[in-house]
C-alpha cells in the first residue's frame, strides 16, 4: 500500500495507531536531542520535540510528516525512560496509588503549514506492590518506556482510570491527529474522513 504520510518516529505503537485509522506510513526515524531546556515547562518540552521531529523528518520525505512526543509528568517533573531496574522501580513506586499527567504533542508538516496539538490526560494508578514491580521489570516491557510503563501492555492492570485520551497516553492523540491530517490532505479510512468529519 502506498504511504501517504512520513512518520518521523521508530515507535511501533505510533505506527499501529496510524494503521488503526487507515493511514499507511513511510517510517523515517529522526535523531533529535531530547534533553529538556532549563526551566522548560513539560507542555512546552513535548511541543518543541514534536515540532523538531516533524521538521527533521520533512527534510527526508516529500510527504506530509508527523512528529510526536510523549512525557509522563509527576508533580511537574518529567519522568523519562528508566536507566535501569532500580530507576524503573523508583518511578513506579512514585506513581503507585496516585494520579499523574501524560502529555502528548503531535505536529504535522504539509501544504497547510505546520499544524500542532498537545493533549493532557490524567492517569490514576492503583497501589503497586514490590513483587509486581519486580515482575513487571522482568517482563522487559518498561525498559524503553517513558515513566517506566506501557498502558497498552501489561501495565494496563495497574491503571484504575484515565481522564482524557487513551490513544494519547499510548503515544498519539488520534482525534487531534486525524483532524490535522485531513487538513494536510492525508486520507483517513481510505478517504472517507475529511476535515474532521465523515464525508
TrEMBL record:
EC number assigned by the record: 3.6.1.9
Cofactor(s) this protein requires: a divalent metal cation
Gene3D superfamilies: 3.90.950.10
Alphabetized UniProt keyword annotations: Cytoplasm, Hydrolase, Nucleotide metabolism
Superkingdom: Bacteria
Cellular compartment(s): Cytoplasm
Catalytic residue positions: 69 (proton acceptor)
Catalyses which reaction(s): UTP + H2O = UMP + diphosphate + H(+); dTTP + H2O = dTMP + diphosphate + H(+)
Important for substrate specificity, annotated site positions: 13, 70, 152
Top EC class, one word: hydrolase
Coiled coil: none
Key word Phosphoprotein present: no
Keyword Hydrolase attached: yes
InterPro entries in the record: ITPase-like_fam, Maf-like
Task performed by this protein: Nucleoside triphosphate pyrophosphatase that hydrolyzes dTTP and UTP. May have a dual role in cell division arrest and in preventing the incorporation of modified nucleotides into cellular nucleic acids.
Family the UniProt entry places it in: Belongs to the Maf family. YhdE subfamily.
HAMAP family cross-referenced by the UniProt entry: Maf
Protein name: dTTP/UTP pyrophosphatase
Organism: Halomonas kalidii
Amino acid at each position: 500500500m502506498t504511504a501517504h504520510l512520513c512518520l518521523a518516529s521508530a515507535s511501533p505503537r505510533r505506527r499501529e495507531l496510524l494503521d488503526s485509522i487507515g493511514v499507511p506510513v513511510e517510517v523515517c526515524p529522526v535523531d533529535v536531542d531530547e534533553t529538556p531546556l532549563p526551566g522548560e515547562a513539560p507542555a512546552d518540552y513535548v511541543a518543541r520535540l514534536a515540532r523538531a521531529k516533524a521538521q527533521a523528518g520533512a527534510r527526508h520525505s516529500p510527504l506530509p510528516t508527523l512528529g510526536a512526543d510523549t512525557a509522563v509528568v509527576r508533580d511537574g517533573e518529567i519522568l523519562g525512560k528508566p536507566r535501569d531496574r532500580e530507576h524503573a522501580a523508583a518511578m513506579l513506586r512514585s506513581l503507585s496509588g496516585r494520579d499523574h499527567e501524560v502529555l502528548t504533542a503531535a505536529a504535522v508538516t504539509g501544504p497547510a503549514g505546520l499544524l500542532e496539538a498537545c493533549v493532557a490526560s490524567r492517569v490514576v494508578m492503583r497501589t503497586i506492590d514490590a513483587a509486581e514491580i519486580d515482575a513487571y521489570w522482568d517482563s522487559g516491557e518498561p525498559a524503553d518506556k517513558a515513566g517506566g510503563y506501557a498502558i497498552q501492555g501489561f501495565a494496563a492492570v495497574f491503571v484504575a482510570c484515565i481522564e482524557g485520551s487513551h490513544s494519547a497516553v499510548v503515544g498519539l492523540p488520534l482525534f487531534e491527529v486525524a483532524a490535522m491530517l485531513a487538513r494536510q490532505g492525508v486520507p483517513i479510512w481510505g478517504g472517507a474522513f475529511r476535515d474532521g468529519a465523515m464525508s
